[in-house]
Amino acid sequence: MLVCLAALATSAVFLPAQLASPASGVMPRHFRAGAATANITPRLGISINGHFNDRVAKHVHDELHARCLVLDDGLTRLAIVVCDSCMIPREVMDAAKALIQQRTGIPSEGVLISATHTHSAPTCTGVFQSEPDSEYQGFLAARIADGVQRAINHSAPAKIGWGVGREPNQVFNRRWRMRPGAIPPNPFGGTNDLVRMNPPVESPDLIEPAGPTDPEVSVLAVQSQEGRPVALLATYSLHYVGAPGFDISADYFGAFCDRLQQLLGADRLNPPFVAMLANGTSGDINNINFRQKRPPQKPYEQINLVADAVAREAQRVYRELKFQDWVPLGVAQHEITLGVRRPDAAELRRAGEILAKTNGRELRGAEEIYARETVLLKDYPEKVPLIIQTMRIGDLGIAAIPCEVFVEIGLEIKARSPFKPTFTISLANGYNGYLPTPEHHKLGGYETWRARSSYLEVDAAPKIVDTVMELFARWR
């Protein structure tokens, strides 16, 4: 089913912003919006993504959702979907977009689908020792389309506003410069890494973080004409927090949505209020203060603490928003091709020797796991296509990138963008692994280690950023 649906999805197409104004002689119609959710919780026993070793779901702590928002300025209609998933391959997203286009008429290019990056969701993309369940992939594509269709069913005249807040206390750069000798060899036997991801907390070998953070909480909110909350989309550049290993959970992304609904007094509305939290640019950011140990906590306590802090800031921004009855919408996307860092003959030979010693047992340790990744990457093409997408909502710009994007890249996009504000949604419209900057590739470390989770060419980031700027420039 996925193959057939994906074949119907279009790519590499630019949709110009269709602006309407009295000066142009084209009067805008009423701005409309609708929001809905679709439950994407899996069966128990399914593989859970996000770990070196595969884990099997034994409990559902909280339900997973595809959270959907549809905007319509009378000329252009857009859909934004945020899924409680670790990462979703392009084939699944293309299949969902094809269904959406068939059912609703929204072109596939006008649909932005992203994964939050909870590490407590079903495996949709093969990485390390977790492999996807094809039945769940088909279910997910269909439920995403259901959610967008339901959002359209809820569509009504609406007002829209946006703003930016700050929550600096929950984000920490996880890549650290260490004292000489404190960085262990990488899985390929090299000792040339200059940074360490997630070093021991309060280690005397810590020198300094290898990069910045982005504390901004970006908010896009929709109200009914009467002022009833309809939906709120936020972005925050935090990788995830972490749930117990065998639970299904939306992590702090889902807890944020529940908490914000409480804070806004938006429970039990008809149609229901929909909160959404997308992952910003958090490829090198997490929730661990490496200078100070965290006191003992109960399961999910930290998730709820982070969710509450970010939700309160989103609520504060929401209260100060100026809502508009109409704004122009636009979407532009382009498919680019980037190189793949494939293993050479010597690397393949070494990987084969390591795997031969395991005799087919479950792999243990980074060396064995990355040996398997090396062998699997042998069959990757020399180049791969990626969708780079931008959306324009009035004076707000959104960039969507199919990677785990480093925070430096998000900050550069914000600084260079002609739209103020601008925010980036990661893990959008596909999954192509980590996106470090060329400078971070020189530093090495986990996020640069070649695997299905990190394989794009060293210069991928500047090429992607330049593409984003070219797409933004088409509206200025």
Query: Could you give a short account of the major beta sheet?
Result: 8 strands, mixed
Share of residues in strands: 25-35%
Let me know the number of strands.
Answer: 24
Distance between the termini: 40 Å
Rounded average pLDDT: 93
Number of H/I helices: 10
Describe it.
It is a single chain. The chain is an alpha+beta fold and 476 residues long. Among the domains are: 2-173 and 208-328, no CATH class; 345-377, no CATH class. Helix content is 27%, strand content 26%. The chain has helices spanning 2-8, 90-104, 134-153, 251-263, 301-319, 345-356, 365-377, 407-416, 438-443, 460-473; strands spanning 14-15, 32-39, 47-48, 55-56, 59-60, 65-72, 77-83, 111-115, 156-166, 172-173, 175-178, 195-197, 206-209, 216-224, 229-236, 247-248, 274-279, 285-286, 329-339, 383-393, 396-400, 404-405, 422-425, 434-435. Strands 8-7-6-2-9-14-15-17 form an eight-stranded mixed β-sheet. A five-stranded mixed β-sheet has the order 1-19-20-21-23, with helices on one face. Strands 12-11-13 form a three-stranded antiparallel β-sheet, with no helix packed on it. α2 (90-104) links the parallel β7 and β8 (111-115). α4 packs across α5 and α6 (345-356) crosses α7 (365-377). The longest helix is centred in the N-terminal third of the chain and has 20 residues, at 134-153. It is globular. The protein starts with a helix and ends with a helix. Residues 1-25 have low confidence and may be disordered.
